[in-house]
Amino acid sequence: AQTVTQSQPEMSVQEAETVTLSCTYDTSENNYYLFWYKQPPSRQMILVIRQEAYKQQNATENRFSVNFQKAAKSFSLKISDSQLGDTAMYFCAFMKQGTGNQFYFGTGTSLTVIP
Amino acid sequence: GAVVSQHPSRVICKSGTSVKIECRSLDFQATTMFWYRQFPKQSLMLMATSNEGSKATYEQGVEKDKFLINHASLTLSTLTVTSAHPEDSSFYICSAGNRGVGPRSQYFGPGTRLLVL
To answer: A90, A86, A80: which is closest to A4 by C-alpha?
Structure first.
């Protein structure tokens, strides 16, 4: 079975600063996908960033980037130039390749951006 | 693209009544849809996986007679909470898995807040 661990239940960051959210996972699979989702107070799940395990290059989306360490099974999210709108729950998710898109979610990290 | 709608967004009902929640993929065909339940400040808990034209697969501990799932078409899945009780009050989220077009992922609906009085 796949497990996803987010060890930081809550974090805070000053506006304009950088913050890193951690995620580790456990799997015996070689081909899979990793995701970070943001859930703001509206509770709509929003895809932040996606990483294919076969790609060595870390994914980047504007102010969001990941540090994907496949051997260590680590997938951290870095948010640069934090904005008030980044305040949300952040969930790390794992998906095996070829399994009908089933996700395994972490427990989430509540991020607060302080003005 | 890849928009998923969910209806209603919130519902209040009396104990003992049944409530139906619809989940639609608007611009893609979803052979697989997922139903989640989420309690405040917690992660999403997968309730069941719904495949078009076949019976849903329920996670351990989820009562299939309580939470009826129908996935009659490639764009529509419904969750019916039968004989709802206050403990069924929660936030329910559906998602649709894509195939073929675009990167593999799940696309989430906006959720339904259910309150049973």
So the answer is: A90
Q: Which one, of B11, B9, B1, B31, lies nearest residue B88 by Cα?
A: B11
CA distance B116 to chain A (A): 20
* A72 min Cα distance to partner chain B (Å): 23
Taking one residue from A and the other from B, the number of pairs with CB-CB distance under 8 angstroms is: 57
Chain-chain contact of B105 with A45 (C-beta, under 8 angstroms)? no
β-bridge pairing A103-105 and A32-39: unpaired
Structure tokens at A31: 């081909």
CA A15 to mean position of chain CA atoms? 20
Q: What is the pLDDT of residues A9-67, one digit of tens each?
A: 999 999 999 999 999 999 998 889 999 999 999 999 999 999 999 998 999 999 999 99
